[in-house]
Amino acid sequence: TNVYPDNFIDDAIRSDIEKGRFTSVHTRFPPEPNGYLHIGHAKSIVLNFSIAKKYNGKCNLRFDDTNPEKETDEFVNSIIEDVRWLGFDWEDRLFFASDYYERMYELAVRLIKAGKAYVDHSSAEEISRMRGVPTEPGIESPYRNRSIKENLELFEKMRKGEFAEGECVLRAKIDMSSPNMHLRDPIMYRIRKVSHFRQGDKWCIYPTYDWAHGLEDSFEGISHSICTMEFEVHRPLYDWFLNQFEDLHHPRQIEFARLNLSHTVMSKRLLTQLVTEGHVDGWDDPRLPTIAGLRRRGFTPSSIRNFCHRIGVSKVDSTVDMAFLEAVIREELNKTAERRMAVLNPVKLVITNYPEDKVEMLISENNPEDDSAGTREIPFCRELYIEADDFMEDPPKKFFRLAPGREVRLKHAYIVKCQEVIKDAQGNITELRCTYDPETKSGGPEANRKVKATLHWVSARHAVNAEVRLYERLFTRENPLDTEEDKTFLDYINPNSLTICTDAKLEPALKDAQPGKNYQFLRKGYFCLDSKYSTPQKPVFNRTVTLKDEWEK
Ligand code: ATP
Ligand code: MG
Ligand code: MG
Questions:
Q1: Ligand 1 contact, 53 CB (< 6 A)
Q2: Residue in 64, 31, 33 with CA at minimum distance from that of residue 209
Q3: Is 515 within the bounds of a domain?
Q4: Tens digits of per-residue pLDDT, 497-538?
Q5: 506 with 404, same domain?
Q6: Cβ 41 vs Cβ 291: under 8 Å
Q7: Does 209 belong to an annotated binding site?
Q8: Among 406, 426, 456, where does a domain finish?
Q9: Same structural domain for residues 442 and 475?
Q10: 2 part of a folded domain
Q11: Which of 356, 352, 364, 365 is nearest to 416 (CA)?
Q12: Is 27 part of any known ligand binding site?
């Protein structure tokens, strides 16, 4: 399961190696540092690093930092942390596209000298209008036939900051009647008088994606430049630029379908909006599909890698159901998570015939799926907590849990019978008075007596007070971008996506819970310690997933 399953990209790579087009495999993951990584990026990360590994090749981490406006060091650092956390290592091959600006500039000058690029003083609107529509030839810019000498002078002035933003651009001179709009004299440089987070004010012209990306790949000796399908129509341009320079290494671009997930959004623009407008609690909000959010939620690196392997790679766009991502982590945690008892919404249960001072230490296996996980002791005594909704004073027919006069088993302990319900002045239940049958202890003579329910519980005297956070999907719509009239994706935010249980009671073994470790709370799901809000005084736990797929019910 550690080898990425073969797909059409393998076919291309093997054929390239066989034909000698490349002697080794070298890929890259090229994020723009303008946001945090999400599960869609994970698909690309896993693909690129796994392919390199499979063919004994290399994979670079390269920041595609070519837009000064929205890029920051915070985003760079989060991306580095997330790729590493996912389990991948770029060794000493961490690169920044902005370090190549000078080389790119020199190549642009060469293109001008070859008569293949020109400075255009048309406005953005004019350029767009002259490009026209794919079915008819476009119109050539009046600046298209400037002399090489004039273009060289103007381009240098652009670099020196002698023109205002938007006053002119550098364009490649390709084909204004190409049916592929990307070949109708694409823009190579724009003027942006904005500081770059790494380059400061050194540059005021910035390369476009199409001009920069192939060069970045080429400079780094990339063999296979793997990107998402929307770049398929850009591939002729990718190849055109590299074909202008005989001395440059020429990588092969291969496209695959991006990951779409139901009930969420993944574009960085929309994630940024959710974060900056405060709809969620930062980029690492456990409801977000960001790697940082999934980590806080309790997803493991192996579950995300496994998910990426199992969804596969194709050229056809599709949407993966969020339920599948949840099923993958659930399946893993069932095997690996230690079991604990935790009462999320407590009501007190007092065993009136159990001695006041007595404490029994009950032994329980930590994980029935894994003998090596060992056992632990759980204290049992006279006063316990159970879930408030495991009791009903006036139960309907199908309610089999605790009710007046009824018996239930307490997990790992005894059968108890509810004798009396105590209420406060407002009529709220404050205490359930029960009796226990000492013969019914697990392993005892009456242990096998049939009762309809087994409840989890926590000893009141030993309980750890905690906050427990339950999450549901952030959006009520399968595709929040498929909106009704006058609505935006924000209108489909699920108002119940976060429930906070402020008065949870945990068994004492959970005092030692560590961040990054997962637990199954019996009957309640899989949980982990929250890395952001936990304190030694009040631990906070996040529910990763429920035990069963409740959404589908
Ligand atoms: P967005 O559209 O959200 O801004 P992006 O593609 O511009 O995303 P980049 O930082 O440029 O974000 O992405 C880095 C790499 O991750 C690119 O190679 C891109 O193709 C890939 N990637 C981004 N989103 C997805 C996705 N949903 N599925 C697969 N790969 C993705
Ligand atoms: Mg991009
Ligand atoms: Mg982008």
A1: no
A2: 64
A3: yes
A4: 999 999 999 999 999 999 999 999 999 999 999 999 999 999
A5: no
A6: yes
A7: yes
A8: 456
A9: no
A10: no
A11: 352
A12: no
For residue 269, the one-letter residue type is: R
Longest dimension (CA), the chain: 101
Residue whose pair of structure tokens reads 């109708």 in the numeric block? 184
Are 526 and 359 within 8 A, CB to CB? no
Yes or no: say if 48 and 77 are a contact pair by the CB < 8 Å rule: no
Give the residue whose CA is nearest to atom 2 of ligand 1.
267
In contact, 266 and 451? CB cutoff 8 Å: no
Let me know whether 128 and 244 are in one domain. Answer: yes
With a cut of 0.90, is the ipTM above it?
Answer: yes
Q: Which residues is 340 bridged to in the sheet?
A: 521
Closest CA to 189 of 120, 127, 142: 120
Residue ranges with strand state E in 35-154: 58-63, 94-96, 117-120
Residue at token pair 């990054």? 516
Whether residue 16 has its Cβ less than 6 Å from ligand 1: no
Q: Is the CB of 30 under 6 A from ligand 1?
A: yes
Q: How many domains does the chain have?
A: 3
Q: Report CA(118)–ligand 3 centroid distance (Å).
A: 27
* Structural domain boundaries enclosing 206: 8-256
Work out whether the CA dihedral 186, 189, 192, 195 comes out positive or negative.
Answer: positive
The single residue listed with the structure tokens 């069932």 is: 334
Is residue 229 domain-resident?
yes
Q: Whose CA is nearest to atom 22 of ligand 1?
A: 41
Question: pLDDT, tens digit, for every residue of 384-432?
Answer: 999 999 999 999 999 999 999 999 999 999 999 999 999 999 999 999 9
94-115: buried (b, 16+ CB within 10 Å) or exposed (e) per residue?
ebbbbebbeebbebbbebbeee
Q: Which of 408, 436, 456 is the last residue of a domain?
A: 456
Please write the tens of the pLDDT for every residue from 339-379. 999 999 999 999 999 999 999 999 999 999 999 999 999 99
| Residues 237, 178 within the same domain | yes
Same domain, 327 and 372: no
What does 237-254 look like in DSSP terms, one character per residue? HHHHHHHT-TTS---EEE
Is residue 40 annotated as involved in ligand binding? yes
> Would 1 be classed as within a structural domain?
no
Residue carrying the six token digits 């002078």:
153
Q: Using 50, 70 and 90 to split pLDDT, how confident is the model at 553?
A: very low
Q: What CATH number is associated with residue 87?
A: 3.40.50.620
The residues that are catalytic are 32, 258, 268
Q: What is the pTM of this model?
A: 0.96
Q: Which CATH number covers residue 499? A: 2.40.240.10
Q: Which long-range contacts (CB under 8 A, 24 or more apart) does 205-209 make?
A: 205/105, 205/158, 205/159, 205/170, 206/66, 206/67, 206/68, 207/66, 207/101, 207/104, 207/108, 208/66, 209/64, 209/66
Q: Is the CB of 32 under 6 A from ligand 1?
A: yes
Atom of ligand 1 nearest to the CA of 266: 3
Which atom from ligand 1 is nearest to the alpha carbon of 33?
Answer: 10
213 and 280, same domain (yes or no): no
Say which DSSP state 547 is in: S
β-strands 342-343, 498-506 pairing: antiparallel
133 with 147, same domain? yes
Residues 103 and 221 in one domain: yes
